[in-house]
Amino acid sequence: MSPSPAASGTPAPTALNARAVLLDMDGTLVDSGAAVERVWREWAREHGLDPERVIAVAHGRQGYSTMAELLPDRPMGINHAENRRLLELETADLDGVVAIPGAAALLASLETLPHALVTSADVPLATARMGAAGLRMPDLRITAESVGASKPDPEGFLKAAATLGVEPTDCVVLEDSPAGVRAGLAAGMRVIGVGAGTAALGADPEVPDLTGIRVEPDGAGGLRILIDP
C-alpha cells in the first residue's frame, strides 16, 4: 500500500467539495491569447486607442461590453455590429490556439459529473477554439447567445447553475480574467483562479494552470475537487 501524503512528507492536496464545476474557456481551458490580441490590437488602431488598455479591458468579456466601456458615447448598436465582425475574425484566426496544460485531463475527470462551460464567446467561436485545442466540448454550454449581460455580470454562471439544478453556493468556478472572477464571486460561488494575479482579484486558491487539479465523486452525490500544492 502506498504511504499517505502526510506519512511520505508530501503536502496533502487542497480539497473543495461542490456539486458542480463551471469552466471559463479563454485563458482557463484554452490559450487563445495571441489570437485575441491580434484582433483587438487591430481594433484599437482603427479607433486610435491604446492597444494595451484595450486588451486589458477586453479579456474575459463580450466585445460589445468592452467597446461600451472604451467608447462610452458611442451608440450600442454600433458596438453590437462591430462585435459580430470581431467574432467572425476571431473564429477564423486559430493560429496558436492550444489547450491550457491539464485541461484535457480535467475535462475527462468531469465527463460524468455536473459541469458546464460558461464563456463570453459565441457558439461558433467556442466550437472553433475548443476544437483547435483538441478539447471535449461540455454538453452544457452557456455562451454569448445564452445571456443578456456580459461578465462581470453573474448571469452566465447563475444560468449554468440553474440549468444543472444546483444552488450557486454549491458551484465552483474556474476563471482567469478579472471580469470572470468578479462574475463568479458576484454569483455567490467559490472561484479557483487560473493564472498569476487571480488571488488578488479574490480567487482562492490560485493555480498556475490545470495540471494540479482533478475531480472525483465524493460518494454522497456531489464531487470533490483536489488541488495539488
Notable characteristics:
three-stranded antiparallel sheet; 229 residues; 9 helices; alpha/beta
Structural commentary:
With about 230 residues, the chain is α/β, with parallel strands linked by helices. The protein has nine helices and eleven strands. The chain has helices at about 5-10, 35-45, 50-60, 65-70, 75-90, 105-110, 125-130, 155-165, 180-185, and strands at about 15-20, 20-25, 30, 100, 115-120, 140, 170-175, 190-195, 205, 215, 225. The strands form three sheets. Strands 6-5-2-7-8-9 form a six-stranded parallel sheet. α9 links the parallel β7 and β8 (about 190-195). α4 (about 65-70) crosses α5. The chain is globular. The two termini are about 20 Å apart.
Break the fold down into its secondary structure elements and pairings.
Layout lengths: L4 H4 L5 E5 L1 E4 L6 E2 L1 H14 L4 H8 L4 H8 L5 H17 L5 E2 L3 H8 L4 E4 L4 H10 L8 E2 L12 H10 L6 E5 L2 H9 L3 E5 L11 E2 L5 E5 L5 E5 L2
Parallel strand pairs: 2-5, 2-7, 5-6, 7-8, 8-9
Antiparallel strand pairs: 1-11, 3-4, 10-11
Helix pairs in contact: 2-3, 4-5, 5-7
Give a short overview.
By secondary structure, the protein is α/β, with parallel strands linked by helices. The protein has helices at residues 5-8, 33-46, 51-58, 63-70, 76-92, 103-110, 123-132, 155-164, 178-186, and strands spanning 14-18, 20-23, 30-31, 98-99, 115-118, 141-142, 171-175, 190-194, 206-207, 213-217, 223-227.
**Structural class assignment:** alpha/beta
What is the helical fraction, as a range of percent? 25-40%
User: In terms of per-residue confidence, which ranges show pLDDT below 50 for 5 or more consecutive residues?
Assistant: none
What characterizes the major β-sheet? 6 strands, parallel
Q: Give the total of beta strands.
A: 11
Please state how the strands of the largest beta sheet are arranged side by side: 6-5-2-7-8-9
Count of alpha and pi helical runs: 9
Categorize the overall geometry.
globular
| Rg from alpha-carbon coordinates | 18 Å
% residues in beta strands:
15-25%
Separation of the first and last Cα atoms:
22 Å
- What is the H-and-E element order? HEEEHHHHEHEHEHEHEEEE
Average pLDDT across residues? 94
